[in-house]
Design brief:
Number of domains: 2
CATH class of the largest domain: Alpha Beta
CATH architecture of the largest domain: Alpha-Beta Complex
Distance between the termini: 14 Å
Shape: globular
Structural class: alpha/beta
Helix content: 25-40%
Number of strands: 11
Strand order of the largest sheet: 1-3-2-4-6-5-10-11-9-7-8
Length: about 500
């Protein structure tokens, strides 16, 4: 039998239920892999070894009683370090929160606990979730498990890399403009951004509140569906949480896809796309066509404004949300300030990294008197046009399909001094955040250099089940999701 950490949660569930293995044995398999390979990847900011071992022992007792347990009971899961866990450091990979300990659990953490999942560690990220490469963390740079010289994507660099490296079968991240989907694509795994309001944001450190959404990473669409079952649902503590019933996403997989229509925006297909990415996408679309779907090129003209909108709206919301980090109430506080004004300036100047500082400055500018009409309000109007355009497209088509990222992973340091090139990494993903639509990235191929390529499937509001069903069908027809980085094959 394969090593336990190389199995899917579907396989592991059977082994745990019939007591072929214990939760503790499973956890030790993951810990062994982490001990051996984490120094190569740097996916974690903290590993909760003792807490996880205690939780695994407790869950084994529940299994031994023979009572029915939730499907994912006993499964290790890692958490992006901008999601609050009580009595654990919540740093957002920033010096300004380096030693801050959360006094409470996020709603999604409470849901994990109720379903007996085992939080195994806090994963690295771009500082305050601002970045597309994982290079903006104040503490370390996470490497892509497929090639350690390449970025894993961002901002959920550690969460994506941890699942790709089999440090955990599942992880949670947050997505503001592609932060789940883009690293999922670059790391060759599944990443889902649910509909805005589908998953509670209570306990998520805010970047851009109108765009942020928590979602799952997994190796397969089926596993992502099981994790979405756990975390989805209305929460009275989040005013933007939607009071919409939660279906059984995993149970609803396996539906026929014959007759479903796919629209492929020419704005993300004809120009600005790496040739190997385009080739993989066409191959994937043709494979789905053989199963009875149809696809055609469409135009979504507003997509070309995505990066400009993001640079105004997301940055403006970031400037507002990050105003709370002032060096007084919590987090890092400069020691050499002579007055209150100087304390603010020095604490924030020393505590925030370059990318965060840049976004705060630009966001503040777009909200300032004399410029708010020209920038912020125009961006809001552009979003209304985009929502209308996507709404009309999804009346005619069941899905909008795009490359998740215009390019495969790039080398560490390659784009760090070219912010425009970096921001364009999220060109295909940002529109789903503006429109609030659900979108999933699944692996659809590899480059000649063995770097993963991702395909994004966008659906209508609260149709996560429908996009996961198409993703699952594609994975039944392909083996991209079963491939492993070379270092794992050598172990």
């Amino acid at each position: 039998m394969k090593k336990l950490h190389l199995l899917t949660t579907i396989e592991l569930n059977k082994l745990l239920k019939n007591r072929t293995i214990t939760c503790q044995q499973l956890l030790h398999s993951y810990l062994e892999n982490i001990n051996k390979n984490e120094p190569k990847i740097d996916a974690f900011l903290e590993i909760y070894k003792e807490n996880a071992l205690t939780k695994a022992a407790q869950t084994d007792k529940l299994y031994d009683k023979g009572d029915p347990l939730p499907f994912l009971a006993g499964m290790p899961i890692v958490i992006k370090n901008n999601i609050c866990l009580k009595n654990k450091k919540i740093t957002c990979a920033s010096k300004i929160l380096e030693n801050f300990v959360s006094p409470y659990d996020a709603t999604v953490i409470n849901k994990l606990e109720k379903n007996h999942l085992i939080p195994l560690g806090a994963t690295n990220l771009d500082e305050f979730a601002m970045g597309s490469s994982g290079e903006n963390s104040a503490f370390k740079i996470t490497k892509n498990p497929w090639d350690f010289d390449y970025v894993p994507g961002g901002s959920c660099s550690g969460s994506a890399a941890a699942v790709a490296a089999h440090f955990a079968p599942l992880s949670l991240g947050s997505d503001t403009g592609g932060s789940i989907r883009q690293p999922a694509a670059l790391c060759g795994i599944v990443g889902l951004k649910p509909t805005y309001g589908r998953v509670s944001r209570f306990g998520l450190v805010a970047f851009a509140s109108s765009l942020d959404q928590i979602g799952p990473f997994a190796k397969t669409a089926q596993e992502a569906a099981h994790l979405l079952n756990v975390i989805a649902g209305h929460d009275a503590q989040d005013a933007t949480s939607a009071p919409v019933p939660v279906p059984d996403y995993a149970q609803n997989l396996g539906q026929d896809i014959k007759g479903l229509k796919i629209g492929v925006p020419k704005e993300l297909f004809e120009t600005g796309i790496h040739p190997e990415v385009k080739e993989a996408l066409v191959k994937a679309l043709e494979l789905l066509k053989k199963q009875g779907t149809s696809w055609e090129i469409i135009s979504l003209n507003t997509i070309k404004y995505s990066v400009a909108i993001y640079s105004i709206l997301a940055f403006a919301e970031a400037a507002s949300n990050l105003a709370r980090f002032d060096g007084i109430r919590y987090g890092f506080s400069a020691k050499d300030a002579e007055n209150l004004d100087e304390l603010y300036k020095k604490s924030r100047g020393q505590g925030f990294g370059d990318e965060v500082t840049t976004r705060i400055i630009l966001g503040t500018f777009s909200l300032s008197s004399g410029y708010i009409d020209d920038y912020y309000l125009k961006a809001k109007k552009a979003i209304l046009l985009m929502k209308k355009e996507f709404h009309e497209a999804l009346k005619k088509y069941d899905f909008i399909v795009t490359p998740t990222s215009p390019t495969p992973a790039f080398k560490i340091g390659e784009k760090i001094n070219d912010p425009i090139a970096m921001y364009l990494s999220d060109l295909a993903t940002e529109s789903a955040n503006y429109t609030g639509l659900p979108a999933v990235s699944i692996p659809c191929g590899f480059t000649k250099n063995n770097l993963p390529i991702g395909m994004q499937i966008i659906g209508n509001h609260f149709e996560e089940g429908k996009i996961l069903n198409l993703a699952d069908r594609f994975q039944q027809l392909t083996d991209y999701h079963t491939k492993m980085p070379e270092f794992l094959e050598e172990n």
